C-alpha cells in the first residue's frame, strides 16, 4: 500500500501546474429536442460521450482553431469549426437519417437504461487505450465482477474470463448480433479471433441472464460485441508492439470513409506472436478483418468478414503445486510439436431497411467455418485403443507403442438473425420482434500420424470418427412502455427450441450415437423509476434455461441422461449520472452504479468427482445452488485532468446438499470403491467472494495520460468442497499504463504507449484444477493440485501511427 500511495502522489503532483480551456454542451434531436445519450464527441485527440442528459465536456483543449465532430447512430454526423481562446459552450442538434446500420440487430439484443438489467458499456476509446495485443478478455478486466486468466501466463494465446464466477461456457457472446459460442461446448475461444479488438466499435457486458439474445444461453453474463461502424472520413493506421517474452504485435488498418455518400470499405491485417511466460508456451496468431457497405436512402447492405489462424504450444497441463516455489514456468510437455492448430473464418451479410415511418427491419446471414487439430506425443499406448492390431515378431507380441496423434475438429456453423423494431417519435412505447435460426454440423475425428510399432496401419490412421448436428431456433418479443414520465416497464419473452444429434465414436472408441430435444420458455420483466433527471432505480426478474454441453452427453453415455439447467435471476439497482460546476468553473463528472443480484439455479451441472468407465470426469445435476451479491461501480472525473474509477463485488456462492465422490485404487491403479463426502452447504468452485478494480488516471499534459490500475481477487476453491487444501490464493496486482500522443502536421496522430503488467512483481495464480484419490488400506486422501501461474513483472510497448 505504501508503494501505491507514493505512486499515486507522484502521478498527481504535476496537475497543480496545468489548466486548459474546456468545451461543453448538449447533444439533442432536432425533431424531438430530446437529449441523446452516448453520442460520440471529438476534438482532435480528445474524445468523450454524452451522458443521460445529452451533456458532454472536453477539457485541456489548446487555444486556436479546432474542429468539433459529433456522431450518433441513426443521425447525420456534425462537424463545426470552433475558435477557442476561453471556455466555451457548443450545443449541437443532430438530424435523424433515413437509413439504419446493422445496429437494428445489435440494439435488439442489447440492454439500455429502460430494461432494468445490469450492464456496462465499453467504448471504442476505452478499448483502444487498453489494447496492447493481449486477448480480448484482458481488455474487459476492469468491468465489475470480472476475473481473467491466461494458460501461457502473459495474456496471449488461450485465455479465460469469468463473470460472477461463471466461465465462458456460461457467457453468451455475439458479434454484430451473430452467435459466436461453439454450439457443442458453449465455449468461445478468443485465440481464434486474434486482435479482433482493433476492429471493434464497442462492447456491452451484461451480467446475469440479461436480455434475450441469439445463441447459447447466458447464465453468468453476455458479451455483445459490435465491429467498426461507418466512418465518415478516410483513415489509415499502423500499430506495432513489442514486449516481454518476445511478444510482438503488428497491425495495419485502413478505411475509405464514405465514398459518394454511399460506399465504405474497412480492412485490417494483424500478426501477434509471443513465447509466453510458461516454458515453450508460444503463440503464433494471424488475423484479418474486412467490411464493405452500401448506404441507400432507406436501407443499408453490409458485408463483414474476419478470420483468425492460431498455432499455440500447449500449456494446459498447468504447473504441479510442488513446483510453484522452485519452477513456476514448468511445462510437463516437451514434444516439439505439442501444438494446437486452428483456423476460424467468419462471414456476415447484414441488411437493414426503413419499412415505414416508425418501423425498421434488420437481418443477417452468417457462416462460421472452423477446422484444425491439436497434436500430441503419447508414449506406451495400447494399440487396441487405436484400432491397430498387435504387432507379432516371431514369438513376441507387441501390444503397446509410442505414437503421435492428432485430434481434429472440422465444422460449419451457419444461420440467420433478424429484428423488427418499432420506434415512434414520442418514444413512449418501443417494441422489437426478433430471433434467429442456426445449424451446426461438426466432425470429430482422430488420426495416428506416426507410431513406433504400427502393424499394418497406414499413415493418418483414423481411430475414431463422429459427427454432431445441432439445430437451434429462437424467437423473442421485447416491449418498453413508459407508463408515466417517471415509471417505465419492460417485458421480454423468448421461446427457444434445440435439436441435437450425435453419431459415431468418441476418442475412447465408445459409440456415442444419441439424440436430444429441448424446448425452453424464457420470460423476463423489468421496471425503471426515474428519481430525477440523473437518478434511476431499476429491477428485473428473468428465467433462463440451458441445455447440457457435448461432454455431458458423450461422457455419460449409458448412464442417466443429463437434465437441462434453469436459473431464476433477480437484479435490482440504482444508477446516478451527473456533472456539476466545480472549482474555477471546471466540471466534475460522476457516475455511480449499485446493484444487488440473486441467481438461483435448479439442476446446475457441476463436477462432483465422479468418473465414467474410462476415467473422464462427469458433471452431475445439483438440485439447489445460488449466487447472490452486491456490485458497486463509480467514477469521478475532474475536468479530464483526473479520473478515479472503482468497482467492488461482494458475493456469496453456494451449493446445497452436495455429495463429493473420491475413488479408491489398488496397487495396479484399478478402482476398488469410492468414498462419499456430504456437505449441507459449500462454496461453488472458482467463485471469489470479493473482486475489486481501481483506476487512477491523470493527464498532467495534454499529450500525456498515466493510469494506475489495481486489481484484487479473493481466494477461490478448485473444487466444490471449500477445502483450504484445494484453493487458489487471493491476489492483488497493479498495472501501470502510459500514453503519449502527438499530432504532427504530416499525420493525424503519433502515439507511444507503455503497459507495465504486474508492476510490483507479485507471484500469483489465476486458474487451476484438482483431483483426489485414496488407496486400498490407506485412509489418507491425496490431493493433486495444478495451477496456471501468471507472469511476473512484464511490459508491452506500442507505437501507433494514424493518418
From TrEMBL:
Membrane-topology annotation of the record: Multi-pass membrane protein
Signal sequence coordinates: 1-19
Location of this chain's protein in the cell: Cell outer membrane
InterPro entries given in the database record: Beta-barrel_TonB, Beta-barrel_TonB_sf, CarboxyPept-like_regulatory, Plug_dom, Plug_dom_sf, TonB-dep_rcpt-like
Keywords: Cell outer membrane, Ion transport, Iron, Iron transport, Membrane, Receptor, Signal, TonB box, Transmembrane, Transmembrane beta strand, Transport
GO MF annotation: an example: siderophore uptake transmembrane transporter activity
Primary location class: membrane
TonB-dependent receptor plug domain segment(s): 113-221
One GO term describing the cellular component: cell outer membrane
Ranges of residues in domain TonB-dependent receptor-like beta-barrel: 312-759
Family: Belongs to the TonB-dependent receptor family.
Name assigned to this protein: TonB-dependent receptor
Organism (species): Adhaeribacter aerolatus
